[in-house]
Amino acid sequence: MHVWPFTVLEYNDAASPTGVPQDVVLIPARGWVRLRIPFTTQPGRSVYHCHILDHEDAGMMATVDVRG
After folding, report:
1. Closest CA to 9 of 39, 50, 38, 51
2. Alpha-carbon separation of residue 12 from 9, 34, 35 (angstroms)
3. At 54, which helix (H) or strand (E)?
């Protein structure tokens, strides 16, 4: 989500979120995060993806189309 900064609300390993807007988050194997993404500032189409190429090839890459 390189266009919309998000805030991490929760990690599955109980790490404390920083509350700082960011555009990349590291998620360990079998991990998860809960995000808050304000899709209100920039309508249009954007891509989201995982930086691990095997994951992108397996479908962790798609587009989001935000309509204003």
Report:
1. 38
2. 10, 8, 12
3. helix 53-57
Fill in the DSSP letter of residue 4.
S
- The dihedral of CA 57, 45, 23, 12: what is its sign? negative
Secondary structure (DSSP) of 31-50: --EEEE--TTS--EEEEEE-
- Please state, in angstroms and rounded to a whole number, the distance separating the CA atoms of residues 37 and 20: 12
The 10s digit of each residue's pLDDT in 10-58 is 999 888 888 999 988 888 888 999 999 888 878 888 888 888 888 888 8
Distance of CA 33 to the CA centre of its chain: 9
Q: Residue 29 CA to chain centroid, in angstroms?
A: 16
